[in-house]
Write a structure and sequence with these properties.
- The protein has 201 residues and is an alpha/beta fold.
- The chain is built from 8 helices and 8 strands, in the order ββαααβαβαβαβαββα.
- It has helices at residues 26-33, 41-46, 51-71, 78-87, 100-109, 130-138, 153-162, 189-196, and strands spanning 10-13, 20-21, 73-74, 91-95, 117-118, 146-150, 165-169, 184-186.
- The protein is globular, with a radius of gyration of 16 Å.
- 38% of the residues are buried.
Length: 201
């Protein structure tokens, strides 16, 4: 694919399902938590009636996330893309709904560059744009000059709400969700590198 808009000055990435395959079994997590399929897990837990119930539920999520971090592998082409952009001096960062501990373990295990990370302890979780806007502000960049790459509807919604360019990662063999209609569709990380390394706005 070819991006038709000018390249960004910064690229922010989601983690699970975008840069890495952590093999998180979300149906199993939902079954263990008795969470409905139409509500985000963090939002479901936030709505539980007692602090004890919320702590117990978050312990389940933490267990799954840490197991995922220990098993995570790069998505095809993501390792080269991230390191290429970082070496070129393009601002890069990660915004995830994961815990900081799990995200850090994933980044360290896979040898990711030392780039800014915003986890759920740092800002309201996506689709809230707070974490994305925080990174743009730290870089003194207009949100319109940033792109956010993710694989889920929360990622696209967060990017749109932040005023950033939304990029939906849907590699070959993965069905593109409805959100593809309001985002750039990325099927190969080489296309992202070519776009981001091109003329900036």
């Amino acid at each position: 694919m070819v991006f038709e808009t000018p390249g960004p000055r910064a690229v922010i990435f989601d983690l699970d399902g975008t840069l890495v395959d952590s093999r998180l079994d979300f149906p199993a997590m939902r079954a263990e938590l008795q969470a409905p399929v139409d509500v985000g897990l963090l939002e479901y837990i936030e709505g539980l009636p007692t602090a004890g119930a919320r702590r117990s539920a978050m312990a389940v999520v933490h267990r799954h996330e840490m197991a995922g971090a220990a098993a995570a592998t790069w998505m095809p082409g993501a390792e080269e893309a991230l390191h290429t952009l970082h070496r070129a001096g393009l601002r890069t960062g990660i915004v995830t709904r994961n815990s900081r501990e799990a995200a850090r373990l994933t980044m360290e295990r896979l040898g990711m560059p030392a780039i800014p990370l915003k986890a759920r302890e740092d800002a309201a979780p996506k689709p809230d744009p707070e974490a994305l806007l925080s990174l743009a502000a730290a870089w003194a960049l207009r949100p319109a000059h940033c792109a956010y790459v993710g694989d889920f509807r929360f990622d696209i919604e967060a990017a749109v709400r932040a005023g950033m360019t939304p990029v939906l990662y849907a590699p070959a063999g993965r069905a593109a969700p409805a959100e593809a209609a309001r985002s750039h569709l990325l099927t190969d990380f080489r296309h992202l590198v070519a776009w981001a390394m091109g003329p900036a706005p």
